[in-house]
Design a protein that fits this description.
heterodimer, A: mainly alpha, 3 domains, 12 helices, 0% strand, B: mainly alpha, Cytochrome Bc1 Complex, Chain D, domain 2, two-stranded antiparallel ribbon, 2 strands
């Protein structure tokens, strides 16, 4: 405040206060545009859901067992073709091999302890859908949807990590256009599978051609059924 | 710009803290943006935060969940001994076909031995009447063999699968690893089908039981495929379709 003002009981706004009105208007407009964008980005499933990689009680590496040794997904996840859930294997499945291989390893302590006591190994669920979603594994793997479509290249993961958002919008992307993800039934657990393009065909077009063939052959439901609420929520 | 404001609009220069404050405010949105970018490129050992639960977690148990109710912590309960769940009727022993049921479910029968007074295990020859061995059945057997058996026994059944190769590489012989059997050799080829079925179901020597991993019908399909593998190892030239 400058000194040449006459003393008064009245409060007089200083002259720089003239700046406040345009500043407030510009900031309100800018904030109104930027805030929803920031909130949308920060709370999207791509930010929150992707990248979850919990520490497991046993440092089991899919990269070694599946990628290197070539175990089929179904060797351990035996129920995936018959049940809604892909079972986490019992300790007995680990012991099929580890009774003889690495049977002195401290990294397998939790497995050996479980084998002795009968208490299960407390594996941590990575891909956890909300409880109001009734996802069925058998309905997908028996209709040509590969494990890799939702779980990514697990055969390359030393530590399993969620790589897809598994949000409703992401599910619907495929339910609206399943041909983008369908493949021959004997390639469902072949995570590295790529279609073989015909002469002059791009990889994407080959994928779509095979997907359309499978869609017809496996009698995939139409879009109205595939996007109906009660297909996934009951 | 400041000069233009002061000279042309005849306004006082804005105070320093106003400019500084504005700059800070304009930078503030970069903080959540940076946090978002970091969350997108990195992995997290913690599950996503749930601000609004929205019935994501309901008071019910999903498959293989843990439960505080039972002493062993399992929400899924094993069936009470001697009972069957609804829908399991396909595997109910048929009292009229006891012999056939034994053949299908166990692969062997127990017979009293009058000479020794003990009980003998007699393995069934051939396939039970419930299964029909055709091309589709053999293909199913091949598929299941490749999933559950080939890791140790190899795709050809010679006992040279990738798990055995790995065991050799890390010298697992010192910790109790034994090479898997060649399922095509003369000894295995001479065994009755029921014996092979029982081996898959309950294991043998170092091999663990696979009864929990492979269904009854699939075990029979694998036995059928094993017969095909054995035949392929000792096939007369006449079977080779004219190839000399």
């Amino acid at each position: 405040m400058s000194n040449d003002q006459t003393p008064s009981d009245k409060f007089v706004f200083p002259r720089w206060a003239n700046y406040l009105l345009p500043v407030i208007v510009v900031m309100a407009a800018g904030g109104g545009a930027v805030t929803p964008a920031i909130v949308g980005l920060a709370f999207s499933a791509n930010t929150l859901n992707v990248g979850y990689a919990p520490v497991q009680p046993v440092p089991y590496s899919h990269a070694l067992h599946v990628g290197e040794l070539g175990l089929d997904c179904r060797y351990c996840h035996t129920t995936v073709e018959d049940a809604s859930f892909a079972a986490i294997p019992p300790t007995q499945t680990c012991m099929n091999c580890h009774s003889g291989i690495r049977s002195d390893s401290s990294r397998l302590e939790a497995v050996f302890k479980s084998n002795e006591t009968g208490e299960p190994v407390q594996w941590v669920k990575v891909h956890d859908l909300p409880d109001y979603v009734y996802f069925n594994h058998s309905a997908h793997v028996n209709k040509g949807v590969s494990c890799v479509s939702c779980h990514g290249r697990v055969d390359k993961m030393a530590v399993v990590q969620q790589v897809k958002p598994l949000s409703m919008g992401w599910c619907l992307d495929c339910h609206r256009a399943p041909e983008k993800h369908l493949r021959p039934l004997d390639k469902v657990t072949d995570l590295a599978w790529e279609p073989t393009p015909e002469a002059g065909e791009t990889l994407e077009n080959a994928r779509l051609r095979i997907g359309r063939e499978q869609k017809k052959k496996l009698l995939i439901n139409d879009e109205a059924y595939m996007t109906s609420c009660s297909t996934c929520h009951r | 710009m400041l000069k233009w404001i002061v000279e042309e609009l005849k306004l006082p220069a804005p105070p320093f803290w106003l400019i500084g404050g504005l700059l800070i405010l304009m930078c503030l949105p970069l903080v959540p943006l940076a946090l978002t970018a970091r969350a997108r490129v990195s992995s997290s050992q913690k599950p996503r935060p749930h601000i609004f639960l929205d019935m994501d977690k309901q008071t019910k148990f999903k498959a293989q969940a843990d439960s505080p109710v039972f002493a062993d912590g399992r929400a899924m309960r094993p069936p009470v001994a001697g009972t069957l769940a609804w829908g399991e009727k396909a595997d109910l022993p048929n009292p009229d076909l006891l012999a056939e049921e034994d053949h299908y479910f166990r692969g062997y029968r127990l017979e009293k031995n009058a000479a020794t007074g003990g009980v003998d295990t007699v393995y069934y020859q051939g396939f039970p009447g419930r299964v029909s061995v055709d091309q589709a059945f053999l293909s199913r057997g091949q598929r299941q063999f490749n999933i559950y058996c080939s890791p140790c026994h190899g795709l050809g059944g010679l006992g040279d699968g990738p798990i055995h190769q790995r065991a050799l590489k890390i010298n697992a012989g010192s910790t109790g690893w034994v090479q898997p059997s060649d399922v095509t050799d003369a000894e295995r080829a001479s065994r009755p089908e029921g014996h092979m079925f029982n081996t898959i179901t309950n294991g043998i020597r170092n091999m663990a039981s696979y009864g929990a991993q492979i269904s009854v019908e699939d075990r029979w399909a694998i036995v059928a495929y094993l017969r095909a593998l054995q035949m392929s190892q000792d096939a007369p030239a006449s079977l080779a379709g004219g190839i000399e």
